């Protein structure tokens, strides 16, 4: 029994298992590394927002040189993200689940491959999205720029930003749950 | 650097990197707001392995590459850390982003990946992010003129 207790505790911390999270994380890091090693570019996902706005807006801020000269590859990077996720959900995921049912059952998420939509209410997505849009631009980065590349390069700016957004995200999510908003 | 002067494989490398990045976001579940919210509500700590695993990989690659002191083959750019400058906005932005992430369970890269897994309601979040980025840029543009 005593030997089982830590296992049970680990199961409660990770109800979906650990494998898909770890595998996914390693791939996210590998994707950023492919871009860095081949081009020297430290990729972040949120600058896409303002660099893409430069195609349709004449506001000065979106038409600065660094956005206009990078907007082309940022669209390509984003198209890559969309198609990579689609590749998993519609091709590799179901294949892998059929070929390796034991992996699929360990990696809870793999069994959910295929088209999927969220139950989180539209106003939460829209309202949260607006704040994410403002916050990443003010804070100079998001979970990929600061969280993956910034932390990876041990940048103090990124570590402070990540600690701040983590603390406020946890507080907010707990509050939203406490007032009974679900999903 | 103009598009014309770019190495022919530049776009392919960016696309391939994005593809692997998006594949990882889909496998990890980060493209699903429910999984992110479960993490923020302390119901599933798996997301620690996503950010941790990714940062360890980039950390090793960045450290080795900058120590090589050579240049990237497709652009000729030097391998640098290009650390962002710290100011008060880094904190304020972190707070606003954190509140938004806690409400919606979605961040930019994960939202794009979510489109790829067929999640059309996520377009609300993407519309919101563009609105937020536009509003922030518009107000800042006026302030600096």
Automatic annotation (TrEMBL), chain A:
Transmembrane segments: 20-51, 72-91
Keyword Protease among record annotations: no
Any GO CC annotation of this UniProt entry: plasma membrane
Membrane topology field: Multi-pass membrane protein
Main location: membrane
Source organism, top-level taxon: Archaea
Keywords noted in UniProt: Cell inner membrane, Cell membrane, Membrane, Transmembrane, Transmembrane helix, Transport
Subcellular location: Cell inner membrane
Keyword Iron-sulfur attached: no
InterPro entries, sorted: Sulf_transp_TsuA/YedE (IPR007272)
Protein's name according to its UniProt entry: YeeE/YedE family protein
Lineage: Archaea, Methanobacteriati, Methanobacteriota, Stenosarchaea group, Halobacteria
TrEMBL record, chain B:
Protein's UniProt keywords contain Nucleotide-binding: no
Signal sequence bounds: none
InterPro entries: DUF6691 (IPR046513)
Keywords of the record: Membrane, Transmembrane, Transmembrane helix
Domain of life: Archaea
Residues passing through the membrane, by range: 12-33, 45-68, 89-115, 121-139
Pfam families listed in its UniProt record: DUF6691
Name used for this protein in its record: DUF6691 family protein
Organism: Halolamina litorea
